[in-house]
Amino acid sequence: MNRKTKLRTAAAAVATLFAVCACGSNPDQATTTANTEPEMAKISIAMPGTNTYFSPWAEAAKDAAEEWGFQATYDLPAGTDWSLAQQNTLVDSLAAKGYNGFGFFPGDAQGTVAEQQKLAERGIFSININGCTNDPGPALLCVSTNVYDAAYYQTEQLIEAIGGSGKIAVLTSLLTDPNPQLRIKAAEDAVAATNGQVILEQVVADIDSPDTAPPAINALLSSKGDELDGMFATSWYPSVASAIAMTDSPEYRHIKVITAENSDQVMEALSNGYIYGTLFQNTYGQAYVAAYILYKVIQEGCTVNDQSPAFTTTDQTSKLLQADVLVVTRDNMHEFVDKPESLPKDTEKLLQAVNDSVLSCP
Prior knowledge:
Elements: H1 3-22, E1 42-46, H2 56-68, E2 71-75, H3 84-96, E3 101-104, H4 111-121, E4 125-129, E5 142-145, H5 147-161, E6 166-171, H6 180-192, E7 198-204, H7 213-224, E8 230-233, H8 236-248, E9 256-260, H9 264-271, E10 277-281, H10 283-300, E11 303-304, E12 311-312, E13 320-323, E14 325-328, H11 344-358, E15 359-360
Parallel strand pairs: 1-2, 1-3, 3-4, 4-5, 5-13, 6-7, 6-8, 8-9, 9-10
Antiparallel strand pairs: 10-14, 11-15, 12-13
Helix pairs in contact: 1-11, 2-10, 5-6, 7-8, 8-9, 10-11
């Protein structure tokens, strides 16, 4: 049985059981309102800019649409900048063309709420993926890694890799993105838990682009490479640049490096032992599950139970459907080579949760 068939089977089996149980449910428990006359779902995963990390979302949207019978596209803005304004312009254009559901990576944790409110007033649904907006807001929910927890886990893994003491650095992305501040806070808290055994020597931010990451990391290594015992990257381009730096500069390989994601450069450096590991989020699965939820709400008239026990509460939202993460090392990388960044068991778990308690369907 292939991956997509397994996912469809998991969702369908639970949906059948849930349909029997949900008939007598209290409608007050499902506070999100769906269209009274369900229509064909036409869904866009609409981005605020281009970033290679998100490329599995195109495949996830396509696969979900084929499996469940709706329309879905992965859409990028015309400009080259990463901005809320670009994303809003793109979404407005697509809404005018009849799109009735949107998956957002928020261009801004607060600013995106206003755009989603405009959509909601027109009966158009939205869901957040891989980054959450701040409550209150009209998004159905947020399907994402718990950013703080993931960065804390990544920091703990790095601390273990360096033997529990030493100096580390954090390489992260745009501070206007809703996630990096949480990641920095998590790293600080994990370091503080060592009671001085580990020092967070430097945080290098705003480097998640192919132009900014290489010079920033090379400068860090030139100035502090002899002092550092470990460093970790939280996003795509700093990870690529770190992998290349470790490949090209053996004098720095005493530094234990944990990157993020699965670029070719990262996986090759991991295979060669030049880096210690890389953090996998369930990138593909988050978009797949988000598209499925939008389809169920739009096309089948389901509603979202805001009080679902599947939700985790964070500082941003009370409706986080939390996806898993895993540090992939040389020991288990054979399971993930030449595949989209995906944790299939986690995707099945998320689908199970959606049908068990997140959705109430007619």
